[in-house]
Amino acid sequence: MCGRTAVSLGADRIRRACAYCDTQGKRRHPEWKNADQYSPSYNKSPQSNNPVLLSRKHIEKDASSSERILMAMRWGLVPAWFKESDPSKMQYNTANCRSDTMMEKLSYKGPLVKGKRCVVLADGYYEWQQRNGQKQPYFIYFPQNEQETFSKPDVKDEDDDLKDNRRLLTMAGIFDCWEPLNGGEVLYSYTIITVDASNAVRSIHNRMPAILDGDDAVRKWLDFAEIPTQEALKLIYSIENLAFHPVATIVNNSRNNTPECIVPIELDAKKETKVSASSKIMLNWLKNKSPKKEEEKEDDLPRWSSQFIQTAPSKRSSTSLMHQWLKKEDGGTCAKQSKFL
């Protein structure tokens, strides 16, 4: 299952990372509908608000279903038919839904047949492995291109090669809209679809999120008007294209929200790997850097690549790149395989 994620980018940087080409081949950036309801965190848990991609047609009936928007939604689906006045009174967990039973359960089948498909975004997710009688957390993410590293806070827009081009994890989800019985603001919420674990992550856990690998899969999952439900469900399967490394147990407490949550550690060391001097500099920058709140005009957006308009991958491993991000050469080594759910 997927029970914890890291989403460290600010709202504007997420928008830039989600650039895509529309049906005419024009480069576009999805607009945020409620960016004020999203806040970054290295340790997101269910009931938090997280960035989700969906078709613009769900919000604007006259829009093309191929257009995308970003929305902060509550993690943990609250079905439209829920009758209580408070969504926290739900007595069952809807953070994840199993792919093999989702068409049998009203909470998920109802939204699915109405085309309420979304893509849940994250840097990566955490999974726990049983190890020597204890649970060892791992951080699992997409392999990254060589250019996809943390940028310096003072780089200029024209320095494209230094920009932050991390490839966000794109997980298949289902959303719904719930209206309080006594009136009030409509609540948008989602669940993450899970599948049997792939060979890559099976050693960590037997379940993982259904991950959409590539923009064609993302496009088909979101475009509910052109891609019917049964056709879209063919995109739901486990993938091998993942990287992972063990992380410190501080992530076990969801109140811990620091960059150390995703720093690689050495499992065989008697003590968890100490953060090197060079890594501390990077970590301090990550702690102090706050996303800009002001809106930017479309023409002012930096022209960097995104996960949806990709460049050729580097031959260097994503594990070594993660070391460059957070630990440098004297940091801990990463595991060679990954796990989720």
TrEMBL record:
Q: Is Cell membrane given among the entry's keywords?
A: no
UniProt keyword list: Covalent protein-DNA linkage, DNA damage, DNA-binding, Hydrolase, Lyase, Protease
Q: Which Pfam families match?
A: SRAP
Could you say which enzyme class this protein belongs to? Answer: hydrolase
User: In which domain of life is the source organism classified?
Assistant: Eukaryota
Please state the Enzyme Commission number of this protein.
3.4.-.-
Extract the ranges annotated as region (Disordered): 31-51, 292-321
Q: Where is the composition biased (Polar residues)?
A: 36-51, 304-321
Does the entry feature the keyword DNA damage, yes or no? yes
Function text: Sensor of abasic sites in single-stranded DNA (ssDNA) required to preserve genome integrity by promoting error-free repair of abasic sites. Acts as an enzyme that recognizes and binds abasic sites in ssDNA at replication forks and chemically modifies the lesion by forming a covalent cross-link with DNA: forms a stable thiazolidine linkage between a ring-opened abasic site and the alpha-amino and sulfhydryl substituents of its N-terminal catalytic cysteine residue. The HMCES DNA-protein cross-link is then either reversed or degraded.
Sequence similarity: Belongs to the SOS response-associated peptidase family.
Protein name (database record): Abasic site processing protein HMCES
